[in-house]
Amino acid sequence: MALDPEVFEALLETIRRFVAERLRPREAEVAESDEIPGDLIAEMKALGLFGMSIPEQYGGLGLNMGEELRIAFELGRTSPAMRSTFGTNVGIGSQGLIMAGSDAQKAQWLPRIASGQIITSFALTEPDVGSDSAAVKTRAVRDGDVYRVTGTKRFITNADKASLFTVMARTGGEGAHGVSAFLVPADLAGVRIGAPERKMGQQGAHVCDVHLDDVPVPAANMLGAEGDGFKVAMRVLDRGRLHIAGVCVGVADRLIADCVAYATTRIQFGKPIAEHQLIQAMIADSKTEALAARALVLDVAARKDAGENVTMESAAAKYFASEMVGRVADRAVQIFGGAGYIADYGIERLYRDVRLFRIYEGTSQIQQIVIARETIRRGG
Ligand code: COS
Description:
This protein is α+β, with helices and mostly antiparallel strands. About 50% of the residues lie in helices and about 15% in strands.
């Protein structure tokens, strides 16, 4: 359900200011420390960012997809790691529960997820299970009132901060229909979190292994029915991919603004480089692509809010927007020239940060497969 438009515009303006005045000045500090400062996390909680997609009845802001995406555009204007702080609570960490959870499960967990009191995480990927996510090897074996869950999950965002994981584990035979989804509290016996990985970019956002060793997960913690886990994961990703596409648009807008600021003040050959046509061509290409991605994202969000199936459209939005922001970041380094390669200007950092968008929540190649399959299935 949409918010009152005036209330929403006020929220958007507050977040715009929060990003510009509070988050942007702290980007270098976050990158160097590989942590989001506690005072910023407290402000994110106070703004309701952890619960923006969670229904109001559970203490969230209850934004619809169109609204969430317009906020994602604003959040994209700072280091992507800032958004990751609450990104799992808004998206992949909470949506399985919202889509497939029982009323009791929702009442138990969602209010604390919405407030940011607990962090959530989505555990699908494994050491041997990346793009082929129906091949999940983690096993869940029924034992009275519990399932005993054993396996290793890999590259799990926010795992070191999470109190609750949505874990996809195999309860049946091979393939997608043998997978079930479980809510796994991090404090159950047998849950062990690995050290944060060292990464190319997005410092401040942590990914870790999650080791599950005979973890006794209450049978009541299953999301949906046995065998539904793969479909739950795919529906969560349909939505998550659209959100990521929105963030890509925001980062592209930020990079274009940085390019314009630099190109209008940097003098070469006796005039600002923004007056040189080869620089203008790069600005024009970046702006055109960012506008196209924005329009696509908003169109898909409107379709989703209208109740349409947007599996294909979300994949297309994520594919286009993540590839687009990669090109925009590459041009930004080029426009900044030597300065684009120097850490102090922050452009090379964003260049590294955006590389992940083409990989996580499904690689570009997986998006191509989803787009092609679904287009063929729909007959064109
Ligand atoms: N929504 C609902 N159901 C879906 C679905 C979706 N988006 N996608 C697939 N399904 C269903 C199918 O309809 C099928 O069900 P039926 O057998 O009842 O018809 C079942 O799930 C299996 O689907 P499919 O045969 O398409 O599975 P594949 O093994 O071929 O895998 C891809 C499909 C490759 C698209 C999937 O594994 C994928 O998205 N991989 C990438 C995972 C990813 O993004 N990982 C990132 C890390 S998580 S942050």
